[in-house]
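OP here, attaching both records as promised.
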Amino acid sequence: MNTRRIAAIFLIVASIAAILLPFASATLLTIGLGGIVFVAGLNQLLRIGDIPNNQGKLFKGLSGLLYIGGAVFILIDPIDSEISLTLFAGVLLLVEGLMELATGASSNASARGLVVVDGIVTAVLGLLLVIEWPSDSLWALGTIFGVSLFLSALNLLKPTDAPPAAS
């Protein structure tokens, strides 16, 4: 069994778990994000010495402290953070969908129809998240993450292009 299939199997199992336990998966995602933001803040602070001027050092230090402060808030109260992230995801999807619609409308490419459909679906999903916020916060992020993992698994299972023939 090749590594693509093994990875796809792991992704399918993870996607099923995320879809069946959306609150748990969304909370774990939120905590993971908090950890990443904390490390990013530490990285900002550790790089202060690389900045040649004091104004740059001040901004880098403030940036690092802001990252760490945000991370602490996320890690202390991941449920409230999850609610905020759901609203952010809804707005992000809505804007992305509208941009896809504009791109599809102004394009002459052969896949123009797919771009428009993608834009409509993405904008509608974003709008639903925003309209139903905050009540959808307990399940939406985990479910969306699970579906995304499943689609990634399907992508790994599709046949790859054959390597070019040696001449």
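Record two, same layout:
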Amino acid sequence: MATNGSMPSLASSVKYMLLASALYEPLRNALHNLGTNVGGVGGVGGLCNMGNPDDCESLAGRTGNYCFQAGLWSGLTGFALVVLLVWTSPIFLGALQKSVSTAKPVASEDRGRDSGDEPGAEPSPEPETASIELDGVLMIWSGLSCLWFGMPLAYMLADPFYRSSALHFVLAVALAAAFPLSWHLSLLALPPCKPLGPWLGLKRQDLLNLHKALGWRAAGWGAIHALGELIYVVSQQGFLSMFQLAGEKGENLLYLMGLVTALLLLVHTLVAYLRRQAFIRRTFKATHRTTASFLLLSATVHWWPFALFLLPAAAAYGTSAGLGVASQFGRQVSEARNSLALAAAVLGAFAGLCVVWKVRESVMLAEGVGLLIPFVFPPLALLAEFAVATAVCLPILVTGPVLHSEPLLG
């Protein structure tokens, strides 16, 4: 479907998200150096309610497991609320704007010209600039990847600890690689998503090529991160230490889930690489989506802030699920209704996160909570985001006009 050039595009929303990703770590690091409680490397503590370990008497800490701190609102810290606002507003406002701007019906002759559905009409040619835009996106993405990786590596190597041995240097590289890997996993699911992809200003094939390019880069960063961490952990504690989860060793689940996530990323990459083989071609889409879902859930267990950064993807795919249901009911979904559903899904996903995060706060502040319990809530939040996003957008999508098949003209 060709898009009318006068219609707003959600491409600007993704541009603002990329800008936010570029500014996140420099601003977080600056705030951390000023003494603001935004957490250490990557902001995990500031985003996930964990205080400074120096202020804790034990793993349980003075206020709960992992030095857990009460949130400012609905279990969310002030830092998490600001990050969520900046991270989700572009897609929410972009979808809302598109809903308003496309609500006006298009004249029938214009609709026919744009969609190529007139008898004998040829489909509207896609803009020649699309491939140039794709090259530009990939160039910008490469620059961002250098920033995502280079800045944390620079300030880690400024610490004498990471320069004290070759092994510590490997650890610094592995930790720095986690930054571009996290942004890749947070963003690469968006281009091929049905409610969002067609409005990014690229041709369908370019959207798929963008997704593939980002997927291969994510695999590369994942390999660097996983191998570096594995080398360090095995050399310090031994491979079997990751499987020791009882009592105060429950924190080892972090490393075990990192290993599981790395293996899932490998499987997911192999599925993509072998997609043209006969034994996987027929079921590639379903297999690809399944492995991607397990990969992101596992990654969220390993790195808890994914529960926040994957919220736009959860909303987009919740809308996609709603579109599937609407299609089964034979409902026609206009661009305006589709955009409104996406905006509503963002709010629904946020509500799902808030419910789980509030329960998380209540549980974590209780006495005697085990060290494995915190790992349950981030993937549960991600599932809640998707479920509530789907439920919220469904009434908007299934109340559209019913599709009627037109009789053939003789």
